[in-house]
Design goal:
Low-confidence stretches: none
Largest sheet: 2 strands, antiparallel
Strand order of the largest sheet: 1-2
Structural class: alpha+beta
Distance between the termini: 69 Å
Order of helices and strands: HEEHH
Number of strands: 2
Number of domains: 2
Shape: elongated
Radius of gyration: 26 Å
Mean pLDDT: 89
Helix content: 25-40%
Number of helices: 3
């Protein structure tokens, strides 16, 4: 049995044996849950919402749309533009 202590800011140190056994890495993310009177820590891997190719495509679209943008220099010009929409 391993024993650990709840520290300031609610931090708990995982025993080295557990970290090694589960091949955990620094900055690993965990889902935290309660089951009956147990605390469950489940390692999770977050997958990015967009791939690198998706992000490149989005950047291209943004650059293309920026060229279409209307340059508004004053508040009165902005008011006229908003009323025209």
């Amino acid at each position: 049995m391993n024993i650990t202590r709840l520290k300031t800011k609610n931090q708990v140190t995982l025993p080295k044996e557990i970290v090694d056994k589960l091949h955990l890495q620094q900055d690993e993310l965990f889902e935290v849950d309660i089951e009956k009177n147990y605390i469950k820590l489940i390692p999770v891997i977050l997958k990015p919402k967009y791939s690198k190719d998706d992000l490149k495509t989005i950047d291209k679209i943004v650059e293309k749309e920026k060229k279409k943008a209307k340059n508004i220099k004053s508040n009165s010009e902005l008011s006229k533009y908003i009323k025209s929409i």
